[in-house]
Amino acid sequence: MMTRRHWVTAGLLAPAGLWLFFFLVLPFLAILVFSLGERAEAGGYQPALTLANYLNLPARAAAFWNTLILAPAGALACLVIAYPAAWFLALRVSEKRRLLLVSLIIVPFWTSMLVRTYAWMYLLGARGLPQLAEVIGIEGLRLINTPGAVLLGIVYGYLPLMIMPIYVSLEKLDRRLLEASADLGARPVSTFLTVTLPLSLPGVMTGLALVSILLLGEYLIPQMLGGGKVYFIGNALVDLFLQSRNWPFGSAIAVSLVVAVVIVLGLAMRIAWKVAGTRQMDLM
Q1: Does residue 77 fall inside a structural domain?
Q2: Which of 60, 199, 211, 249 has its Cβ near the most Cβ atoms within 10 Å?
């Protein structure tokens, strides 16, 4: 029997649930139906029931490989840079300076990603760093339209999204645990591996999941810094839906990407939470 408390809970969850149903579940079901259809003669969707679009996925293997290599590489690069920055902000900076530094991390989000990417196009282009390199005797340096340029743009664009979840986890860390570890004779490295890192692992996984999911659908950075030579799945979807108008094949790619993301992130989160729980039990 539904109590008043249950009705209140259902009422509070109803708006978010309806939003997710109409703007997430229904569109995904529509894409799933499209993926089983055929391309009409004039482009678009023609009703059918076939798996030919899924069998044709290897035709876009380059986009899948670029995404599955550069997206995790970009997320890991962000993590390598973000963790020391978040650790310094949370554990080594006074509260007065902390607010200022956190604000400086967030400030780039006030500027459009398009503008910031254009700035990197200039810096990596022929009149930017390569021209400066020629002055010191390095000729023929090519930075733009390379995987390295795309990776650099990814790290620059998504680094704040990695720093903030880790910073929040470290800020909530009980300092007495660090003091107890030091009092018991543990070295700083041991304290970090057995106390700081396990307790901040939820923030690490949140940052990795957030950045990875966004990168898997990235379009702007590969398009501008990759110059069409470094092709992501997002670029392939734009091409299939807007240019070649092959909606069923594009839908099959989108469905495959969603399934892969759910499986990989589910396994990663399960492993991370299991490790975090084991480490916390050891601490107790």
Answers
A1: yes
A2: 211
